[in-house]
Fold this protein.
Amino acid sequence: MTIHSEHDPSGPLDGARVAVTGGTSGLGLALLRELRDRHARVAFVARNRARVDEVARDHPGSFGIVGDVARKDDIYPVALQIVGDLGGLDVLINNASSLGSAPLALLGDTDCEDFELALATNVLGPFRLTKALLGALSASAREGRGGVVLNVSSDAAMNPYPGWGAYGASKAALHHLSRIWNEELSNDGLSVLSLDPGDMDTPLHAIAVPDADPETLKRPETAARELADAIAAALTRRRVGVVERVATLQEAGA
Amino acid sequence: MNPADRPIQRPRDAKLLAIDARGRITHMARRRFVDVLRPGDLVIANDAATLPASLRGVHGPSRADIEVRLAGRSSLAAESVTAFSAVVFGGGDFRTRTEDRALPPALAPGDRLELGPLSATVEALLDHPRLVSVRFDGSPAAIWAGLARHGRPIQYAHVPAPLALWDVWTPIAGLPVAFEAPSATFALDWRSIQSMRDRGIAFATITLAAGISSTGDPDLDRRLPFDEPYRISEATARLIHRAKNEGRRVVAVGTTVVRALEHAAAEDGTPRPGDHVATARIGPGSKLRIADVILSGTHEPGSSHYQLLRAFADDTTLERANGALEAGRYRTHEFGDSVLIERMPRVGVSASDGPDVPSDACGLAAA
C-alpha cells in the first residue's frame, strides 16, 4: 500500500460518513484520528460507556455509540444511531475483534464458548452490522458517493499459527465472507475490502503475545494511514465507476 | 381479507395479483414479480428505514401512563430529531386495537413527558386533543441513543408478537426517517434487484418519511396521511427524467413513492431533486405524471391507500380485483400479499389535477 505523508484536504474522505467499530483503543482509535484528520465525519462504536464518552469528548464532532457487535440485540440500535447521527453512511469499518481465548490456547484447550465469542465478534457481528447498514451504504453508492466496507483481517486468517485457532478460523471466515460479498455487491456500486493491517502494538496484541517487543511491532497510526489510503482509493474507484456507467448509459440512450 | 399476523417480510407463499392497463387480472407468486416488468422499466422504491417511533412513558402532570407515537417531522435532516408531531395514547399497548385504546390524559402546552431515557415537552396541540407537537431535551446524538434504547416499532393488534427493528427495516432500509415501514418494499430483496439488473430494468430510490397509517380516532384518521418530507437524489431525478423522455415506464414500489413522485412533478412535470414535503393526496381524478405502475400491499376499500389506487385503475376494475383478492384468500396489512397495477389509459388523465380526496378511516396497512 502507498503511504502518503500529506493528505489532500479535498481527498475522497473529505466529508465522507464513516463508522468504525472497536473505536476506543488500538487500531480503531488510530483510525478515528486518521479519518478525522482527513475531514471525514466519524461515528465509532465500543462496549464501555465511560470510555466511549471519554473518546467522544476528546474528539469533538465525532459520535460515540455504546454497543457490542457480538450481541445480536445491539446491532439494529447501533445501526440506527450510526445512520441517524451521520445522516447516511459511506464507509463501514468492521474493526472490533476478539481473540476468543485470552490468553491464546491450543484448539484442544479452547473452550467452545471462547470460540463462539470469536465467531460472534469477528464473523457474525460484522455480517449482521453490514447487512443492517447495506441499505444506507447502497443508497450512498446510488448517489455516486461510493460505498465501502472494510473488514479488518489478519495474517492469522491465512496462516495456521498454532495457538491462534479461534481467532484465525474466525478471521478466515470473515475474509472469505468479505470476498463473496464483494463479488455480490460489486454491481451495486459497493466494495467490500478485507485487509491485514499487520502485527501492531495494540492492547489486543499485548494480550495475545504479552512478551512481544513493541519495537518490532507496527504502530497502529501507520496501519490506520494505510487502511485510510485503501478506503480512499476504493471510494475514488467507485465514484469514477459511477461516472463511467452514467456516461455509457447516456451514450446508449442517445 | 384476512390480516397477515406474522412479521415475515417475504413469506415463500406471498401472492401477487397483477392488473394490466386493460384491466386483465393475473395471479402469481410475488417472488416472481420482476418477471412481469419490462426491460427499460425504472423501478423506484422508498429506502427509508423505520424509526422505533413508539415510546412508552409517563405524562408528568398527571403521572398517567402514556404511549407516544411519533408521527411527523418537518425535514429529513440528520439533526432534525428534536421536534416531532405525535399521537398520544393512554396506558396499554399495541395488543389493544387502536380504536379501543384508552385516551391519554388532557394534554396542554408545557406538559413534560418522561419517556424512558428521553424527556420531552408538549409544545402545542395540533387542533386535536391527542395530536401534539413535542420537543425532546438533549442533543440529537442523545435523542438517537434514547430512541435506539427505548423506542419500539409502531405496530397494531393484528400482529401479536412484539416487533423488533429487523422486522420492519426493509432490505434496502437506509436513512431512519419513516414512522411506519414502507411495507410495499418488503417485496424486494437483493436477488430481485439483481434480477432487474440482469433484465435491463433500472432501480432507483427516493426517501420519504412514511407516516402512521392509523390513529384509531376517526377525526384524526380523516387527516391522514399527514405531510411527509421526502428527498429525491440527483441520480434518481436524472433516471426519472430520462425514462419519461424515452417513454419508458416508471414502476413505483408503494403508495409513498407515488405520493413523492407526483408531488415532486406537480410544478413542471418532472421531479426536482432535493428535499420537499409531500402535502397533496392522490385519488380518483388525480393526474399521474410519473408513475405508470404501482406495486403495493393489498388495501381495503375506504383507506387512503385504496384511494390512491383509484388513480391507477377505474372502480369497476378495482371492484373485480377486490373480488379476486377475497376469492384467492389474499392476506392484507403490512406483512400481507401484494398487487401490481398498471395505470389504465383513461384513469387519471381526463380530469384536471383533481380535488383533494378525503381519506376515510384508514386501514392499517402502510404501503
The CA atoms of residues 104 and 163 of chain A lie 6 Å apart. The longest helix of chain A spans residues 220-253. Chain A touches chain B through 31 residues (CB under 8 Å). The helical segments of chain A are 26-37, 49-58, 72-86, 112-142, 165-185, 203-208, 220-253.
